[in-house]
Design brief:
The complex is a heterodimer of chains A (251) and B (199). Chain A has 251 residues and is mostly helical. Helices cover 67% and strands 0% of the residues of chain A. The radius of gyration of chain B is 22 Å and the shape is elongated. Classes of the chains: A mainly alpha (251), B mainly alpha (199).
């Protein structure tokens, strides 16, 4: 069996079985390397070579994490949540809540789309912008899976369709260039304008997926606890965070 | 003040291309604004790191995973072995090409890097099966994009989890990966296949 297929299967199955994704990736890499004809040593060498490239990203996330914690202490999330409650009035009716939900999801989607082209920060905006909104989402009992779907759509669909920002790299620099270099000896000529046109149909499928996710799959309210963004640190730093069961219930 | 810090952090990231610098300046601004004391910064970084530790380590090990996949040389073997199962069935050929793309992107965690791997084999193959140039674009483009959403180790799912899971109420696999796989990869396979057959 092909080592890549086997490794991916091992990784995915272990992840789905609630093994930590980190362990799943290591186990998958080990299986893939050994089946693919590498020795244990070569497999570990290759793994370690790759790991170095991820360190910079990890440090960046830690910094942004610190920023998110600082923001949460600034009281901005509480302010946003309070403003929302006053906006909705005391007796928030269902229609109003639905409107605010739609507004929030559209805003998240829009920002995610722009993060690929207009303001090409890629995913770096998420740890900055989303945590302050969690209290608002809790207030609305908004299913976070809907938010995840909106974000992922915004992160992927634009680069497959719009040839600007990261899309310019994907569609023009990589897809178009490789199609033409591979197809030239066979008389294939793909022009720049054909690419977005062709990709419109599969991306249209994703758009349908998005609508289904937001208005059908994850429409029902889901309840979350009002937990603090990061565990409270005591002055001595001695208090450990209790591992608490996080989910009240599946909806 | 928080608003200013958020804008500054994003703006600086954009300008310098460094997430680290952006985050650092954001934290510094909040500190100047008196949100927390500078000597609490260690505390803050520890909390921040703990919050992002899972995402960070998934990204690190995903990079290792991808490197092992590349080293085995089986990625090329996968693309080439796809030949064998086609027979002369055009519909099956399109489907297998899409699925091979899905597995490669899941393996190396980036749809951008999948294209150079598959294009060299898929383009001649698609032309040989009589797919039009437009259909060839769809096949290669969709095969590459497949597996970005819905992968346990790609930015497109780790990003959303990094924001939604800061209070540990959003499970990466079941709340980010599985929903996006179902809602994006399945339609991509379906519509990509249809488009390839029709265009």
């Amino acid at each position: 069996m092909n080592a890549v297929i086997l490794a991916v299967l091992v990784m995915v199955v272990l992840s789905l079985a609630r093994v930590s994704v980190v362990f799943a990736l290591m186990a998958g890499a080990l299986v893939g390397g050994l089946v693919g004809g590498l020795s244990l040593e070569q497999t570990l060498d290759a793994f370690n070579t790759g790991v170095g490239g991820g360190a910079q990203v990890a440090l960046a996330y830690a910094t942004l994490g610190a920023f998110a914690v600082a923001i949460s202490r600034s009281g901005l999330p509480d302010m946003l949540a309070l403003r929302l409650i006053s906006l909705l009035g005391q007796e928030a009716n269902a229609a109003q809540q639905a409107r605010v939900k739609t507004l929030l999801l559209s805003a998240v989607l829009l920002v995610a789309v722009f993060s690929q082209n207009l303001i090409p920060v890629h995913i770096a905006f998420i740890p900055i912008l989303i945590p302050p909104l969690l209290k608002v989402m809790n207030q609305l009992n908004l299913d976070r899976r809907a938010v995840a779907c909106a974000l992922t759509f915004g992160l992927t669909a634009p680069y497959m369709l719009l040839p600007v920002g990261f899309g310019a790299i994907f569609l023009n620099d990589i897809l178009l260039a490789n199609l033409n270099s591979a197809g030239a000896p066979l008389g294939l000529e793909v022009t720049r304008s054909m690419v977005p046109l062709a990709m419109a149909i599969p991306v249209g499928g994703m758009a349908i997926g998005l609508v289904v996710a937001l208005f059908w799959s994850y429409r029902k309210p889901r309840h979350y606890q009002a937990l603090e963004v990061a565990s409270q640190q005591s002055q001595q730093g001695a208090s450990a965070i209790p591992a608490r069961p996080s989910r009240i219930g599946w909806v | 003040m928080s608003g200013v810090a958020i804008v500054a952090a994003l703006g600086l990231q954009l300008y310098s291309g460094s997430m680290i610098l952006g985050g650092l300046v954001g934290v510094a601004l909040l500190s100047l604004g008196g949100i927390f004391k500078w000597r609490e910064a260690d505390d803050l970084f520890t909390s921040g790191m703990r919050m992002m530790a899972l995402i960070g380590f998934i990204m690190i090990s995903a990079a290792g995973f991808a490197e092992v996949m590349k080293t085995t040389g089986d990625i090329d073997a996968l693309v080439e072995s796809a030949f064998a199962v086609f027979g002369d069935n055009r519909g099956l050929a399109a489907l297998i090409m899409l699925l091979v793309g899905l597995f490669i992107t899941l393996g190396i965690g980036s749809s951008f890097s999948t294209i150079p791997i598959i294009a060299a084999i898929f383009v001649p193959l698609a032309l040989q099966f009589g797919f039009s140039p437009m259909a060839t674009v769809v096949l290669v483009g969709t095969a590459a994009a497949l597996g970005d959403a819905g992968s346990p180790a790609s930015d497109s799912t780790l990003g959303p989890t990094s924001g939604l899971n800061v209070d540990r109420q959003h499970d990466h696999i079941w709340d980010s990966v599985v929903p996006t796989f179902l809602h994006y990869n399945l339609p991509l396979i379906g519509f990509g296949w249809l488009a390839a057959m029709m265009l």
